[in-house]
Amino acid sequence: MTRTLEFRYVIVRNGADFGQLYQLSAPTIRCDSSADIKTSLSGTFLNNDEVNWLSDEIRVEMIIDGVVYLLGVYLPATVTFNSDGITDQVDIEAYDRCWIVQDNKTESLIYFQAGTNYLTAINQLLAHCGIALVTVTPNLATMAEDREDWPVGTSYLEIINQLLSEINYKQLWFDKSGTAVLEPVSVPTANNISHTMDNSNVKSMMLPKISRETDVYSAPNVFICICSNADKNAPMTAVSENTNPQSPLSIARRGRRIATVVQVNNIADQAELQAYADTLRNNSMISGETIGITTGLFPDYGVADVVGLIYDGLTDVCIDKAWDMTLDVGGEMTHTLERVVINLG
Predict the structure, then answer these.
(1) Nearest 5°: phi and psi at 5?
(2) Options 3.40.50.620, 3.40.50.920, 3.30.750.80, 3.55.50.10; CATH of 101-182
(3) Distance CA 57, CA 36 (A)
(4) Which pLDDT score is estimated for 335?
(5) What is the CA radius of gyration of the chain?
C-alpha cells in the first residue's frame, strides 16, 4: 500500500485561514531546544501579493493519507523577494510564537507583589504579548518577595523564562498548534518515551546513519546552589550530588568530587531550590554522549522529546536536543540526541 504525502502552508490572519503559499523548493523546519526561540521555518515559495508579511502567520501542515498533522505556526521574520524572469519568488525565514514574546520589551518597570502566584504572573505577561492560547500544568508556588528585577527594555521572554526556572519549569515553548506550553521539568526515563527508533525495524523509519561523540571532560558531579539577595534574612543553600553508579560522571566512577557553585537570585522556597539543584544534577547525567541519527519524517515531534533508541540490539534513552526536517516527499529528519543515564538517583 502506497502512502500519500503532501504539505500545505496556510496563511493565517487574525486567527482565521486567509490564503495559501506554494513551495518552489523543499522548506526546512528546524528545532533547537536550547535556543530561546525553539523552532523555525525556512524556504522558497511562490509570492502571494495578498499576504501581509508584517502580521500574517504561516501554519504548516503535513497530510498523510488524507490525515492532517500540524507542524507549527510561524511568523515571517526575514522576507526576500526575487524573480527568475518567469516566477516571482519569496524567500522566508520564520519563527514560532516565542518570537512575539521575545520581540516585546518592557516600557516601564514590571512589578509583582510578594505572594503572587508564579503562573498567574507568567500568564499576565503572555497576555500582554497577545498570547491567549496557553496549556498550563498547575503550580501553587508564589513569589517570596516583591519583584521589580528587570530594567526597562527587558524582553518579556527573558522575564518569563526566568520565572519559569524559579519553579523548575521548562523554558517557554509552543506546540505544533501554536499553543504556549508551561510545564515542569521532568526526568527522562524509559517510562516517558515519546518515540522509539529501531534500526532493525522499518516501521521506526530509522535510516542506517548514526554517529557518536563523547565530551565529559571536567563535567561537575556536585552542584551547590545558593540563593541570596538583599530581601532575604539569610541565604538558602541546596546541594545535589551525582552518586549514581550507572553514571560515568558520578563521584565514585570519576574517583573525585568536581563541584560547581550556582548563584540563584530568586527562587520560590527551599524545596524549589533543592529541586533546582537536583535538575542540574539530572541534566548532567545526560552523559555527554551526542548521537546523530537520520530518520524518515515524524509528524508528531515536539521540543526535547524523549526517544528510545535501539541500535544493533543496544537500547538507549535519549533526549532529542535538536532536529531538522526537510518538507518533501522522501524528505529526511536529522536528529541530535543526548544519551541519558537510566534510573537517575
Answers:
(1) -140, 130
(2) 3.55.50.10
(3) 19
(4) 92
(5) 22
